[in-house]
Design a protein that fits this description.
This protein is mainly alpha-helical. It contains 22 helices and seven strands. Helix 11 packs parallel to helix 13.
């Protein structure tokens, strides 16, 4: 596992952006053009280099087990995460439908505004394969690539075989990474770019070459194009790199030139998406209200302490409920002492309640064993009982600063553990080096065994995509059910208040207090809706939905049934309303899709036709015959 492999990964990322944006300019994003483009890329590479430099990597069997099982899950299971159904996969289908990644009218602004690189990769795989079978492999590939980067960093900092193995076991057994590796979130993709950026920054400080600065700019640019939290995570790295350049370089002009080269490349990669956002929302970062929703409304040392404690609490849950309740009460008492609520809307996303719950889900899982190891290493380094060297200690410093920065800038979220995946993978480097330098080979084997055994429930009993169903904690076994049955849960508990069309959806509570919770027969509802559309002969469908409705399963289940509808969102009442929907005909049917979070659906205005289907969360109205 060598750094040149990561250079090729970086090149593939750049090519993906170039092809996507280039073909999009001509509304030519389709299967033929993407297949032809990648065939040309591969042929050019083989003509220039052949297979020189490729070798079969030696992989630790424990790491291989995790990668192998998660790869099987990624291929067998369909994309079925909450965000996958609401916007990750949805935006991909709209792009394919429009032949372009241009913004489109949408009730869910995230489908337009959020950083799109991970979905660019899914887009290419979806077009090449002709379906979503390979969609989950983007995150899995980023997981595997991150492990390569971790090994490269350990070697770069002087670690031997024992240190590399220890770091890889630490990284490969991280619960959130394991769970996300078979889904379509984007945190592992971001982690990959962050680790490659660190490698490039170290190389640039050491060698001062323009090429290494360009690698850094490319990695940072791709990180920002992947997820908005990259701004916070990359800032400490870039600040440290710039300071070291000026301190170590005798020529300030050259240092400024290297910074400019990296910055211009990073900006260039994001320029098309920035331009699309600026044209629609008046800001390169997207909708201002959506940005402000994620940022702390107040900042102080009390807020910093509150968010640090709550972010750390995401990793301390145990399988014992009364222990978790004791931890929760302790955190509540601490907040009472500092005069802040644990659900204060000024520092908490949508006023979400504090919960300390053991979970095997990609949105909620913590990493208590890894946190314990990190605390031990941090304490040993801070007290100077352990000296790891400048590089590993810089990794520790970067992770700690980024952890504080996230608490300072961003509101606490109950699913915020996944935002910290990059930090844990970065910390695997100093933790692996520390273990190798302080423990005997016998102790290292026992410690590795502990981490491997602890990760097994996350490997085989992923709550969203289980190989072994965990009673009360897992969905249906992916090996025993048809793929079409795995997109959606059979039933779902949802807030019961009926305030459709009223209130500001961005201020709507995460836990609706408008009424009792209801049970939706979600899978049956979507399947029945697709069947009604198929039998009606209507392919041009209008969609009215909430800001977090699950629209992707409408396409996925339709494709499984051999039906290919064209769906566009109508009666949109936000900044995207004036955008083109592409060359679609007037809808012959309209779907009204409720939100599983209880967000309000805009009330339809002047909607003709007759209602032919209503099973929560889907309602269908067929338009007059003249529209069909």
């Amino acid at each position: 596992m060598k750094a040149p492999l990561l250079d090729r990964v970086l090149a593939v990322g750049l090519i993906t952006v170039a092809l996507t944006e280039g073909l999009s300019l001509f509304h030519a994003l389709n299967r033929a053009t993407v297949l032809a483009s990648w065939a040309l890329v591969v042929a050019s590479f083989l003509a220039a280099r052949g297979l020189r430099g490729w070798s079969r990597p030696r992989v630790d069997p424990r790491v291989a087990m995790v990668l192998g099982v998660t790869a099987v899950i990624a291929i067998v299971a369909p994309p079925n995460g909450w965000d996958a159904l609401a916007y990750h996969m949805s935006r991909v289908v709209y792009w394919i439908q429009n032949g372009s990644v241009a913004h489109f009218p949408t009730h869910n602004i995230r489908q337009d505004a959020f950083s799109p690189f991970a979905e660019f990769c899914i887009l290419h795989l979806q077009l090449i394969w002709g379906g979503d079978r390979l969609a989950n492999l983007v995150q899995w590939g980023a997981f595997a690539g991150s492990l390569v980067a971790v090994a490269a960093l350990v070697r770069r900092f002087g670690g031997g075989a024992a240190a590399v193995t220890s770091a890889l076991v630490f990284a490969a057994t991280l619960p959130m990474a394991i769970l996300q590796a078979s889904g379509t979130e984007n945190d592992l993709v971001l982690a990959l770019w962050l680790l490659i950026a660190l490698l490039a920054a170290e190389e640039n400080v050491r060698t001062g070459t323009v090429m290494s600065a360009l690698k850094l700019g490319a990695a940072v640019g791709l990180a920002v194009l992947t997820k908005g939290t990259a701004y916070v995570l990359c800032a400490p790295l870039l600040a440290g790199w710039a300071i070291l350049l000026f301190v170590r370089s005798g020529l300030r002009r050259r240092a400024l030139g290297l910074i400019a080269a990296a910055g211009l490349l990073a900006l260039g990669l994001n320029a098309p998406h920035y331009a699309r956002n600026f044209r629609v929302f008046g800001s390169p970062l997207g909708d201002r209200a959506l940005i402000e929703l994620h940022q702390n409304d107040i900042r102080s040392l009390r807020v910093l302490a509150s968010n640090l404690v709550r972010n750390a609490s995401l990793h301390v849950a145990t399988p014992i409920p009364h222990v978790n309740e004791g931890i929760r009460r302790a955190i509540e008492s601490l907040h009472s002492a500092i005069g802040l609520g644990t659900s204060d809307g000024r520092t908490t996303f949508l006023g979400a309640p504090l919960s300390v719950t053991f979970a095997l889900h990609e949105d909620w899982a913590g990493a208590p064993l890894h946190v314990a190891a990190i605390v031990v290493v941090l304490a040993a380094v801070a007290t100077r009982r352990l000296r790891l060297g400048r590089g590993p200690e810089a990794c520790l410093a970067l992770a700690v600063i980024a952890f504080f920065a996230m608490a300072w800038v961003l509101k606490w979220q109950p699913w915020g553990a996944r935002f910290q995946v990059s930090l844990f993978l970065l910390l695997s480097v100093p933790c692996g080096l520390a273990a190798a330098r302080t423990l005997s080979p016998h102790a290292l084997r026992w410690l590795a065994a502990l981490f491997v055994v602890a990760c097994l429930p996350y490997v085989v009993a992923n709550a969203a995509r289980p190989l072994i169903s965990w009673p009360g904690r897992s969905a249906q076994n992916i090996l025993l059910h048809a793929r079409s049955e795995l997109y959606l849960p059979a039933e779902l508990g949802v807030p019961g208040g009926d305030d459709s069309g009223s209130g500001d959806p961005l201020k709507h509570s995460l836990r609706s207090s408008g009424g009792p919770w209801r049970r939706w027969a979600v899978r049956a509802s979507y399947a029945g809706a697709v069947d009604v559309l198929r039998r009606s002969g209507c392919r041009d469908v209008g969609l009215i939905q909430a800001i977090d409705s699950w629209d992707y399963p409408l396409w996925a289940l339709a494709w499984e049934a051999g039906f290919d509808p064209r769906i566009r969102q109508i009666q949109v009442r936000n900044a995207t309303a004036a955008l083109s929907s592409g060359s679609l005909d007037a809808p012959c049917a309209v779907i009204i899709l409720d939100s599983p979070m209880g967000f309000p659906v805009p009330k339809p205005v002047d909607l003709a036709g007759r209602e032919v289907y209503r099973v929560d969360p889907v309602t269908i109205r067929l338009m007059p015959q003249s529209n069909r």
